[in-house]
């Protein structure tokens, strides 16, 4: 690091410390204001919320003005520690661990770290609900099937069958003939040293298949067969699409071909099939 870079770095550190100190001072003033005028709800001072917010806001505004960027609202973290220590240890060390203190700490954390807490709540909460809904579905499906069969047998007086004739059956031979007629090379290996070729760059294609919800109550073996055929059909469509994209760029093959399967959507209600590789023109 040369002298000029060291000087710039020291100047940045001084400016950052100034912004943090300013934000911390503003937060302490706000907290003192709320304490002095006893602005609280059921003995819980609202300064615990507004002091970290004020500190982070003041620090960010000053940092954007004199540095030109946000340095992370460090003063909000400092105020979070200060106010929590004062309120729950010095001021009331016998407060105890109960629903009031849990709620208070949660609100303080939300005020001090809004982005992190919102991420945990939204992503973790949605993920937990999705997971629980999947378990609930697994538990309730057999019960639903049992009563549905009774309803068909004794009320409707007809066999319990799920109509899935509209699901198209995959013709693997027809699909293979289509791929073979593309005049295109699909190569999974990366070793084509002996071949004379032009590298056209990386290409990818994606196909998304929705799960057929009518198959939920059908025979498990039939479900597996239809699902496998749908995935094969989707894979071949993806390969054809990839070949067409590369051919439009002047290529006639793909090297290091990789095919990936994944579940997407809330509760995994769709399949995503991706094919990717290096497009080439084999001479």
**How many individual helices?**
7
Strand content: 15-25%
Sequence of secondary-structure elements: HEEHHHHHEEHEE
Q: Catalogue the unreliable spans.
A: 163-167
How many structural domains can be distinguished in the coordinates?
A: 3
Percent of residues in helices comes to 55-70%
CATH topology-level name of the largest domain: Translation Initiation Factor IF3
The neighbouring-strand order within the major sheet is: 3-5-6-4
Give a summary of the structure in a few sentences:
The chain is of the alpha+beta class and 283 residues long. 59% of the residues lie in helices and 16% in strands.
Structure report:
The protein has 283 residues and is of the alpha+beta class. The chain folds into 3 domains: 3-112, no CATH class; 121-160; 172-282, Hypothetical protein apc22750. Chain B (Translation Initiation Factor IF3). 59% of the residues lie in helices and 16% in strands. The chain contains 7 helices and 6 strands; from the N terminus they run αββαααααββαββ. Strands 3-5-6-4 form a 4-stranded mixed beta sheet, with helices on one face. The chain has a two-stranded antiparallel sheet with strand order 1-2. A hairpin with a 5-residue loop joins β5 and β6 (270-282). α3 (74-90) packs antiparallel against α4 (99-112). The chain is flat, with a radius of gyration of 31 Å. The chain starts with a helix and ends with a strand.
